[in-house]
From TrEMBL:
Domain Protein kinase: 20-271
Species this protein is from: Pseudooceanicola lipolyticus
Protein biosynthesis recorded as keyword: no
PROSITE patterns (alphabetical): PROTEIN_KINASE_ATP, PROTEIN_KINASE_DOM, PROTEIN_KINASE_TYR
Name of the molecule in the record: Serine/threonine protein kinase
CDD domains: STKc_PknB_like
Length: 317
């Protein structure tokens, strides 16, 4: 829990719309803050994401919140349940969602390596949630340890949160934050650096975060823009991982999307096939040495390098 500040949108004990009593400040973000609130009517705990004052008049950021609200149509226990957007009398816009009690995978990452069995359980649960989201043409685009919470600390009750930059891939739909890169560099799929995203990008991110939590440390994506781009084009180092986790992550995180599992359903089918199996190791598909299709033409990455440089300098500072 964080201490509130005089300039925060809400203060502890404040009552919103005669219904929700603010109990705690859970986190601060670049565009929004998250609070825990309790309904004075039902007693139910809720999480409340409020857009920062400087963004409440920006239609793009308002659209981000309404995009999240629309994701309430996804019905799966592994996907956070959203309620509705509201605006207070003084203009603060907030989004209500279920409050999930438990550690995030980012906290578990800081505590050290996680057991392979727990990670396989998390993979099954999260893949099921992604399957439900992808069925509605919604790609998360920002899967990372801080966006997965283990409800009551139970890997089998993992919940995906924060669809704030989710992309609607239905024909004709617009991406609120544009078609450029969205997501965290450490876990983002290589194609996201070029602004291309589909369901396979979420599969890559899930595999990358599973690897990070097994190792107990975040991926090393490089110290400069050139290293980031080069390393994203290489397979992740899964040496030393036990089976079936190694093959699973190898097939989730192939640099070329065509070489990955093509859907969350395929991930689940693979997991189904390893349950109760003997010690036989499933060998990943070999990469073709010849006759590979030529990669699509790429845009200039001058702008990408500049953006990466800013991020890396900020992290260094």
């Amino acid at each position: 829990m964080l201490e509130s500040r005089p300039g925060d949108a809400f203060q502890l004990g404040e009552l919103l719309n005669n219904t929700y009593r603010i109990e705690a400040l859970l986190g601060r973000g670049g565009t929004s803050d998250v609070y825990r609130a309790r309904s004075e009517i039902s007693g139910r705990l809720m999480a409340l994401k409020v857009l920062k004052a400087e963004f409440t008049g920006n239609d793009d950021y308002l659209a981000l919140l309404t995009r999240e609200e629309a994701i309430r149509e996804i019905r799966h226990d592994a996907v956070i349940r959203y309620s509705e957007c509201n605006r207070t009398q003084d203009g603060h816009v907030y989004l209500l969602m279920d409050y999930v009690e438990g550690p995030g995978l980012d906290k578990k990452l800081k505590q050290g390596p996680m057991p392979a069995d727990d990670l396989l359980t998390i993979c099954r649960r999260v893949a099921g949630g992604l399957e439900a989201a992808h069925a509605r043409q919604i790609v998360h685009r920002d899967l990372s340890p801080d966006n997965i919470i283990l409800k009551d600390g139970d890997p089998s009750r993992a919940v995906i949160i924060d669809f704030g930059i989710a992309k609607d891939t239905n024909p004709g739909a617009e991406t609120i934050v544009g078609n450029e890169f969205a997501g965290k560099y450490a876990y983002a799929a290589p194609e996201q650096l070029d602004g291309r995203t589909d369901a396979r990008s979420d599969i890559y991110a899930l595999g990358a975060l599973l690897l990070a939590n097994f190792r107990g440390k975040p991926p090393d994506v490089g110290r400069n823009p050139m290293e980031v781009v080069q390393r994203k084009g290489q397979p992740l180092d899964t040496s030393g991982l036990p089976e079936p986790l190694k093959t699973l992550i190898d097939r989730m995180t192939a640099p070329d999307p065509k070489d990955r599992f093509q859907s969350a359903t395929e991930v689940l089918l693979y997991l189904d096939g390893t349950e109760g199996a003997d010690a036989t190791i499933i060998v990943p598909k070999p990469q073709k040495a010849v006759d590979s299709p030529a990669p699509p033409p790429r845009r200039s990455r001058r702008g990408l390098y500049a953006g990466l440089a800013v991020v890396l300098l900020a992290a260094a500072g």
